[in-house]
Every structure is written in structure tokens, then in C-alpha cells.
Specification:
By secondary structure, the chain is α+β, with helices and mostly antiparallel strands. The protein has two helices and nine strands. About 23% of the residues have low confidence.
Length: 173
């Protein structure tokens, strides 16, 4: 193999390795119909039946747990099974950044039209519901809520700080 062919192969391999995280999440800017509700009630709706990733099917009602984030004890929001909820800083209620393949890695917390309690505890923030293509997604203080498929057991926080994803704390502004 010539030196230039080896160099080209090496460069292509490195480029692919650098792009893999973006290919996996598929995050891009999209649009969303804004259907806001300040109600604290709704029923969970499972987006798929993927059992190989326990956090893939977030469930209501929302609970809280104490976890250490960046060296500090924090009250963190979880789904009904204890899987940590996350938000994505590029998202806005009117223009989400997590769409398509991104939603496979970061499943949204969805509710259906039947009314049921969203949260098991009283929290300082406001819940709202945003209509998306997959259903109605729960938001907390204007931040859309997701789980992370790499979290394999309740209370695990493997997604905190990855590509602008952060665990949702009760004092999130």
C-alpha cells in the first residue's frame, strides 16, 4: 500500500470516528406545534416497547431523588421507575433541536390525553405539555424532558454534560 493511500485511509477513519457521536444521535433543528398546558396532570404514553434499553420508555409520574452532580448534592427529577430526566440546552419549546435519530438516543417523556398526575411531589417549577410528532412531550420550566438510553438502571446519570445534555434538577430555571 502506498504511503498516500495509507494516509487517506487513516484520515477517513479518523473523520468517521469523530462523526460517530453525531451520526448516532442525529440531532438537528426542527419545529414543534406549541400546545402549552400549565396543568400538573397527564397520563404516560410509551413511545416504543424497546426492552433492551431500560430508559427508552420513560413513564409518569415524575419523582425526585438526591444525586451528586458535579460534586454537589442535587434534587434530580426522574421518571416513575427512577430513570433520570434530562434537558437539551439547544432545545426551545417552539424550536426543538432533538428530532429524528436524536429521539432514539434521548427518548422524550410523553403523556396522552387522559388526565393523571404528572408529578408525585410538589416542585417549585411549572410543567407544560408540548405537541410533537411522537405525541405530547412534558416540559419543566420551559425545558423539554427526556431520558437517555445509556442509563441502564435507576439513578444512573451517564448523560449529564454530554453534548449540552444535563440532568433536570428541581431548581432548573
Amino acid at each position: 500500500m502506498s504511503r498516500s493511500a495509507y494516509r487517506l485511509g487513516f484520515q477517513l477513519t479518523m473523520a468517521l470516528l469523530l462523526l460517530l457521536p453525531f451520526l448516532f444521535t442525529g440531532c438537528k433543528v426542527g419545529t414543534r406545534e406549541d400546545v402549552t398546558s400549565n396543568s400538573n396532570t397527564a397520563k404516560s404514553s410509551v413511545s416504543n416497547n424497546n426492552t433492551s434499553f431500560p430508559a427508552a420508555n420513560p413513564l409518569l409520574p415524575i419523582k425526585t431523588t438526591q444525586l451528586t452532580l458535579t460534586g454537589k448534592s442535587s434534587t434530580v427529577l426522574t421518571d416513575a421507575r427512577g430513570f433520570v430526566l434530562y434537558y437539551y440546552t439547544p432545545d426551545t419549546l417552539n424550536k426543538p433541536a432533538c428530532t429524528g435519530g436524536c429521539l432514539k438516543a434521548w427518548p422524550p417523556l410523553l403523556v396522552d390525553s387522559q388526565q393523571k398526575q404528572i408529578s408525585m411531589t410538589t416542585l417549585p417549577g411549572q410543567f407544560s405539555i408540548q405537541k410533537i410528532s411522537a405525541g405530547n412531550q412534558v416540559a419543566y420550566n420551559g425545558h423539554l424532558l427526556y431520558t437517555y438510553i445509556s442509563d441502564t438502571h435507576p439513578g444512573q446519570v451517564t448523560g449529564n454534560g454530554i453534548y449540552s445534555w444535563y440532568a433536570v434538577t428541581s431548581d432548573l430555571k
